[in-house]
Amino acid sequence: MPNTPALPSPEKHIAESTVRRLSLYLRVLDQAAARGLQTISSVVLAEEGGTTSAQVRKDLSFFGSFGKRGRGYDVAELVTALQDILGLGREWKVYIVGAGKIGSALVSYRGFSQRGFRVVGIYDNNPQMVGRMLDGVGIRSMAQLEHDAARELPDIAVLTVPAEHAQAVADRVVAAGIRAIMNFAPAPLHVPPSVTVKSVNMALELEGLAYALVRRDAGEPPR
Amino acid sequence: MPNTPALPSPEKHIAESTVRRLSLYLRVLDQAAARGLQTISSVVLAEEGGTTSAQVRKDLSFFGSFGKRGRGYDVAELVTALQDILGLGREWKVYIVGAGKIGSALVSYRGFSQRGFRVVGIYDNNPQMVGRMLDGVGIRSMAQLEHDAARELPDIAVLTVPAEHAQAVADRVVAAGIRAIMNFAPAPLHVPPSVTVKSVNMALELEGLAYALVRRDAGEPPR
DNA sequence: CATGGCTTGTGAAGAATTTCACAAGAACGC
DNA sequence: GCGTTCTTGTGAAATTCTTCACAAGCCATG
Ligand SMILES: NC(=O)c1ccc[n+]([C@@H]2O[C@H](COP(=O)([O-])OP(=O)(O)OC[C@H]3O[C@@H](n4cnc5c(N)ncnc54)[C@H](O)[C@@H]3O)[C@@H](O)[C@H]2O)c1
Ligand SMILES: NC(=O)c1ccc[n+]([C@@H]2O[C@H](COP(=O)([O-])OP(=O)(O)OC[C@H]3O[C@@H](n4cnc5c(N)ncnc54)[C@H](O)[C@@H]3O)[C@@H](O)[C@H]2O)c1
Questions:
Q1: B177-201 pLDDT, tens per residue?
Q2: 3-state SS of B183-208?
Q3: Spatial contact of A151 and A125, defined as CB atoms under 8 Å apart
Q4: Proximal ligand: closest to the CA of A173
Q5: 3-state SS, residue B159
Q6: Which residue of A100, B11, B108, B171 is 20 to 30 Å from A32, comparing CA positions?
Q7: Are B106 and B183 in contact (CB under 8 A)?
């Protein structure tokens, strides 16, 4: 019997960096599957994912034992295992709040729907926008948010409102029972510990590049 | 004489996490300045930035000594110091490659221009798009890229093309002499070590949220 | 000008993460 | 069946990052 999918239930805390890399491995595996690869070794997985083979094996070892010595990992099996671990076996309902430039771009992003993230509602406080459709999803009034959430039980809220309103919107979203927030506004959010927040701060990434450029020119040791 | 801005020249390697936090502090300081604060302590800076006061002081200590014991940090002074450290004292020329949904949203993003990142060129390989204007910047043909770059010497390329073309575009951009890339495509890029890449992978962040949600329900120790 | 209350800067300790290195298992050829 | 080659899984070591804890400095007040 071929290696039944291990139930992903480590009792230890898993580092966020490990979880990020698991997502990355999943992406590499998708490509490998598309190229018709049956099997992949930790060395190849590492090369394509930009890390080391020891890191790959260690990351996976937290959740079980998925490979075969001398062979490597079965691509299809590992995809299933990683999806299980990451909670991608189901559909996640997403609200987007803020139907502006970035919010509209995200609605139709296939990278989300491919992984089971389904946008079920878009909210905006501008009456001009309410009622319009974005990629098949209607823009709703902010007034409805709590009411809709009680019925639809969305899992994740994506915040794409101006930074100065981000905290207020986060408060409402939390009060409405949503326990995961992805924040695109460049403002640190303060939420109860039962709520998970991930921030995507693009200006911050650019600043990291600027830093790298000035350091490089100044002759920073490249480590 | 009031604390002349220390030249930011640590000989040691500085962790990426430290640099990210410096950007964050800068954001908190902007808000503090807007509220009229003259001075701010590491405790307040930490609370608003979502870290600890010891972390704030340690981060800053890598670059010099910016505070006054018993008083805290002068907001305006620290802003200047951080901008210096991060290389935000100058204008950075940015090319955006891929004038699709996310590329167009980024062109007009004020968070970039506010920090001195100026979009000087947008490129697309779709002839239909070439010549159109996006927020005052014309979309140019990919054929021109190398030629324009030799003249304009852009510092940073933002890649917003489909994942399957990201590597090819990265290769061209590197060959054109650009040494910093911000990659929005969900594909790991392989570039020479002289080039710095930062990837913003939004699906990956969502997957991190999904993981947090399944773990939380499964009763992961909250660390 | 002495005292008390605050706050920084920083070595040292502690914790977390990554890398090393190797025993053990699997496949293949002969 | 046996040796060779490959590759995993994992303790242990090494490295990196964060937190602790406190001496030293600054300011206000009396
Ligand atoms: N445009 C970009 O490329 C970009 C990039 C990174 C981050 N961001 C951040 O994303 C956020 C949105 O940016 P954008 O460019 O899409 O702005 P935008 O102005 O195009 O869109 C913001 C939308 O939010 C709505 N809104 C405002 N206040 C609201 C509230 N209280 N409740 C509900 N809706 C509200 C507005 O009506 C508008 O439709 C900002 O915080 C911005 O800093 C934008
Ligand atoms: N839309 C989103 O919300 C979103 C979010 C995160 C990441 N992304 C990623 O960003 C990238 C772009 O996404 P999008 O939604 O803007 O797609 P899009 O299709 O709207 O835009 C892509 C643009 O790139 C151009 N292009 C294609 N190949 C090119 C090439 N070889 N050289 C130059 N230009 C080329 C196309 O003409 C098009 O204008 C994708 O990799 C996507 O995965 C998108």
A1: 999 999 999 998 999 999 999 999 9
A2: ECCCCCCCCCCCCEEEECCHHHHHHH
A3: no
A4: 1
A5: strand
A6: B171
A7: no
pLDDT of A216 reads 79
Q: Say how many Å lie between the CA of residue B200 and the centre of ligand 1.
A: 18
Cβ of A161 less than 6 Å from ligand 1: yes
Nucleotide nearest to B43 (CA to C1'): C7
pTM, 2 dp: 0.93
Instruction: Spell out the domain ranges in chain B.
Output: 16-85, 92-203
Nucleotides of C under 7 A from a protein CB: 5-11, 16-21, 24-27
Q: Which of residues 45-64 of A touch strand D (CB under 7 A)?
A: 53-54, 57-58, 60-61
Q: Which atom of ligand 2 is nearest to the CA of B163?
A: 41
CATH top-level class of B16-85: mainly alpha
Residue carrying structure tokens 């079980």: A64
Average pLDDT, chain B: 92
CATH fold group of domain A92-203:
Rossmann fold (3.40.50)
